[in-house]
Amino acid sequence: MRKLLDLLYDGAAWLAALFMVGLLAMVLLSIVSRLAHFHVPGTDAYAGYLMAGCGFLALAHTLKRGEHIRVTLLLSHLHGRARRAMEIWALGAATALAALFAFYSARLAWQSRQFNDISTSNDATPLWIPQLAMAAGALILLVAFVDEWVLELRGLRKPPAAGDEPSRNE
Q: What is the pLDDT of residues 98-135, one digit of tens each?
């Protein structure tokens, strides 16, 4: 099961990287077309869709690598059972919020499909297509939070030490 979950997180990260390359292509196309005095419609909109998809698809991978911003002011003063209880509570709350986020993201994409909602820019893209990346990223983030929560409940999760966090900022 661990290999499957890691494959899911890594696959989402690779897809986010692919979206980032697509974002670069859209920006370069926009710059080159402006310099060559022609216009490619929709480049700004597609760059935005790709940026959003990149951000959402990378969330779970970032969480699993311990790179999300954590406020450890309270945790740094807790030890033993109190610290573990706070970790469990925080991961439970994060899991609940991620579940709401995944549900409403998926519902937004579904409703956009039902109502045939299209972009207001000149590309007229059906909005459910770019919203799928947001919904998929939110769902994978939910899986990652459930994974972290279960690992913490089983005593298998190793949170980053309080002193490690500043050294990881580059």
A: 999 999 999 999 999 999 999 888 888 899 999 999 99
For 24-71, what is each residue's pLDDT tens digit? Answer: 999 999 999 999 999 888 888 999 999 999 999 999 999 998 887 777
Q: Is 163 helix (H, G, I), strand (E, B) or coil?
A: coil
Q: What is the pTM of this model?
A: 0.85
> What string of H, E and C letters represents the secondary structure of 3-67?
HHHHHHHHHHHHHHHHHHHHHHHHHHHHHHHHHCCCCCCCHHHHHHHHHHHHHHHCHHHHHHCCC
Q: 69: number of CA atoms within 13 Å, CB side?
A: 0
What CA–CA distances, in Å, run from 75 to 21, 64, 89, 167?
A: 38, 19, 12, 18
Structure token digits, residue 42? 């929709």
CA distance 146 to 149: 5
Q: Please, what sign has the CA dihedral across residues 98, 99, 103, 106? A: positive
Distance between CA atoms of residues 51 and 130, nearest Å: 10
- Tell me if residue 86 falls in helix, strand or coil: helix
